[in-house]
Write a structure and sequence with these properties.
With 260 residues, the protein is an alpha/beta fold. It folds into 2 domains: 216 residues, NAD(P)-binding Rossmann-like Domain (Rossmann fold, 3-Layer(aba) Sandwich), CATH 3.40.50; 37 residues, no CATH class. Helix content is 47%, strand content 13%. The chain is built from 8 helices and 7 strands, in the order E-H-E-H-E-H-E-H-E-H-E-H-H-H-E. Helix 1 crosses helix 8 and helix 6 packs across helix 7.
Length: 260
């Protein structure tokens, strides 16, 4: 069964990785629901571009820290588009500080958005997937689901949790023609990272090339950023018939980071 014509909900998709996946899915004929915060005019522009690809694209402003809004996101998707076939849990935030200085509210927010939101989305979507006899759940984790870095205690904890959640759900729904997998990217070239390169270069008195090669890509053996198009292609593969026996596991798209 092809994913063309299916309906995908992609959380945290008004920019960056999520938007890149939404564009890749729309190119493949998959209807998309995008979600996240951002400028209203920019969101409308992105919706227009997605719809120009010949699919239905709608926006839902659910706050991924609020379980009731997440459940409503799933219900609204089914009511407006007729089904919810694919869930991409991508919403995430970051904070970098030593653990003894880490603000409690930042910890709580990162756990809520990066980990707990995946639970709430999957919990709400699975009954519909079981009823229709098909579903694909993809959790965007991170290389930090597999290895740690200092000063990212909440993020690393959340992403490790997402990977454990992925394994568990993969087993629970294995006989229902539903798969659950995680994609673990390394550093991805997005406008946000591009801005970080410029800021880091200025703060550390380095060239932008030095920041890219000696700071961000130090662990990525290919010395190349992951692209959003590569992540979209990986997600599309996991939604294809070729991947129907891949479940409860992860694919690392990290330039060799976690192989070392």
């Amino acid at each position: 069964m092809s994913a063309e014509g299916k309906v995908a909900v992609i959380t945290g998709s008004t920019s960056g990785i999520g938007l890149g996946i939404a564009k890749g899915f729309a190119d493949a004929g998959i209807h998309v629901v995008i979600n996240g915060f951002g400028d209203e005019s920019e969101i409308k522009k992105e919706l227009d571009e997605l719809q120009a690809k010949g699919v239905t694209a709608i926006y839902n402003d659910a706050d991924m820290t609020k379980p009731d809004e997440i459940s409503q996101l799933v219900e609204d998707t089914v009511n407006e588009l007729g089904s919810i076939d694919i869930v991409i849990n991508n919403a995430g935030i970051q904070n970098v500080q030593p653990v003894e200085e880490f603000p409690v509210e930042k910890w709580d927010a990162i756990i809520a958005i990066n980990m707990s939101s995946a639970f709430h989305t999957v919990r709400a979507a699975i009954p519909y997937m079981k009823k229709q006899g098909w579903g694909r759940i993809i959790n965007i984790a991170s290389a930090h689901a597999l290895v740690a870095s200092p000063y990212k205690s909440a993020y690393v904890t959340a992403k490790h949790g997402v990977l454990g959640f992925t394994k568990t759900i993969g087993l629970e729904v294995a006989k229902d023609n539903i798969t659950c997998n995680a994609i673990c990217p390394g550093y991805v070239w997005t406008p946000l990272v591009e801005g970080q390169v410029k800021d880091t270069a200025k703060a550390r008195n380095l060239t932008e090339n030095e920041v890219i090669n000696d700071v961000l890509l130090a662990a990525q053996w290919t010395k190349k950023f992951v692209t959003v198009e590569q992540l979209a292609g990986t997600a599309l593969f996991l939604c294809s018939d070729h991947a129907e026996n891949i479940t409860g596991t992860h694919i690392a798209v990290d330039g060799g980071w976690t192989a070392a």
